[in-house]
Amino acid sequence: MLKIDKLNKTFAAPTGDVIALDNIQLQVKKGEFITIIGPSGCGKSTLLKIVAGLDTDYTGAVVLNGKPVDGPSIEKGFIFQEPRLFPWLTVEKNIAANLSLKDPIIRTRVTELIELVRLTGFEKSYPRELSGGMAQRVAIARALLRNPDVLLLDEPFGALDAFTRAHLQEVLLDIWQTNRTTMLFVTHDLDEAVFLGQRVIIMNPRPGHIRSVQPIDLPFPRKRSSSSFQELRHKVLSEFEKVEEPTIDVGAGI
Amino acid sequence: MQVGIEKSVVTPLIKKKSRVKNRGLSIQVSNALLSILLIIWEVAGALGKLNPILLPRPSTIIREFVSLTASGELAMHLGVSTWRALLGFLLGGGLGLAAGIWVGFSYKTERLLDPSLQMLRTLPHLAIAPLFILWFGFGEASKILLIAKGCFFPLYVNTFLGIRSVDGKLFDVGRVLQFSHWQMITKLIVPASLPNIFLGIRLSISVAWLGLVVAEMMGSSTGIGFLINDARSFSLTSVVFVGIIVFAIVGKLSDSLVKLIERRMLRWQDSYKGEGSS
Q1: What does the UniProt keyword field contain (chain A) (predicted)?
Q2: Three-state DSSP class for A19?
């Protein structure tokens, strides 16, 4: 469904070119939940931006549903680290954005989505009246309204407190299980990666490359305290300990 | 499972009440100060301490105001002045808005137009007025154009600034949601620069009144500016005061009107409104 082949990306820097992504190979099946984890500077966000079509300066191939990615489109929903809502629009209008709420189909879908992200009662609120977690849920609903083939999430819960984060992880799993949207979720939080992903892509920096892929064969809902969860968590963690600079965020999640 | 309701706005009722009371109090204090000043002025005038030609008593000014209103003279002059200010504002402000949008959108246009426009901006009304009279005569055209020239720049500068300060991160959102070019303008750039545009409108309107006085004093037989100038040459100081007061009231009213519209349209804004506002 999503195929990334021999993807290379270099940044021009005054001290010479920096290789941001080195020969990335990845295939994502329809409906799969992939988490990408790695320390800062490993190129995980760059990879996501390329898949989104926000960055087209690369070599190699990124193919979604048989079509090469050549720019941003609604087939690739993108959730930024910050909610990035339009401050002048209410919650429901933010979700609709450039679509008209007067259209009965859109209207029904928006109402459904507000229910799905558990924001019923806040339809007419402005972004300034929302907490960080609520705002991020609006952003998720905004992407889902466009029925994306794949949802790209760039550390979406990174700025939230631990409780809100755990709650939103559950909301997201809920959405995934209801809609079966393919998810590509970038994080720097080990527990989050293992808790959400069916496969965890482990990336390392200098140059940014995929170090290994760890399948997580645990059924949902997962229990963080279970021994099998802890075992897999250790397995992923050990991949990082081989690197001299363990900048990964251990235990920031719950 | 509702997380984050704690942040929704729940202002304690008691606090709000005391705030309203406070505001009422400060208005009373400012009114009292003004009344005391007027009383001192009136008494000093009645005692003959003030030269009535330079500083007529408030009661004289009020009497003059009433008689000018009763004769319909004031309304006629005000009507003419308002019409000129409005036309000049619409013309200059409209062009300023258009130019601001145009220059704001394109770096090329900015480099092409902005330097010359900035140069024109610094030219004072009084320096330009003789030229306008030479070109367009003493008629309405020169007056309206002079006002328009003043109104152009505040809207131009602020619209341009508003467009350039749109959060770049929201552009990425627009791209991801596949906004068309037109939607980028109407759904993103215009609403985001609206606070600046409103500031420009308010500044333009005050400049319109300013330009009006200059225009009407240059040569005119109607308008509040003429009324003031004419009264001055006959040493009718109380009429000059009436003219000034009318300008002050109309200026304040027009500004309040825009502010009201602004508050309606920018309800989403989350900025510091100052200590003691509710």
Answers
A1: ATP-binding, Nucleotide-binding, Transport
A2: strand
Asked if the bond preceding A14 is cis, omega within 30° of 0, the reply is no
**Closest residue by Cα to residue B217 from B233, B234, B205, B204:** B233
* Contact yes or no for B232/B240 (Cβ under 8 A): yes
The alpha carbon torsion through B235, B238, B241, B243 (nearest 10 deg) reads -80
**Amino acid letter, residue A16:** G
Domain B58-265 has CATH 3.40.50.620: no
For the stretch A167-179, pLDDT in tens is 889 989 988 988 8
B interface mutation test: which of A48, A70, A81, A88 has the most B CBs within 10 A? A88
Residues A3, A84, B269: CA angle, nearest 5 degrees:
165
- For B40-90, the three-class secondary structure string (H helix, E strand, C coil) is HHHHHHHCCCCCCCCCCCHHHHHHHHHHHHHCCHHHHHHHHHHHHHHHHHH
User: Does residue A152 carry a pLDDT above 90?
Assistant: yes
Boundaries of every domain in chain B: 1-50, 58-265
Optimal mutation site among A69, A86, A91, interface B, most CBs of chain B within 10 A: A86
Name the residue among B1, B176, B270 with its Cβ closest to that of A72. Answer: B176
Q: Give the tens place of pLDDT for each residue, B168-203.
A: 899 889 988 988 888 888 889 889 999 999 999 999
Smallest CA–CA distance, residue A53 to chain B, in Å, is 8
Q: Are the C-beta atoms of residues A67 and A100 closer than 8 Å to each other?
A: no
Residue with tokens 């979406």: A156
Chain-chain contact of A126 with B268 (C-beta, under 8 angstroms)? yes
Distance CA A94, CA A129 (A): 14
Max Cα distance, chain A (Å): 57
Chain A residues inside the 8 Å CB shell of B263 = none
DSSP helix/strand/coil, A183: strand
How distant is the Cα of B165 from the closest Cα of chain A, in angstroms? Answer: 14
- Helix, strand, coil percent content, chain B, rounded in steps of 5: 80, 0, 20
Q: What average pLDDT does chain B have?
A: 85
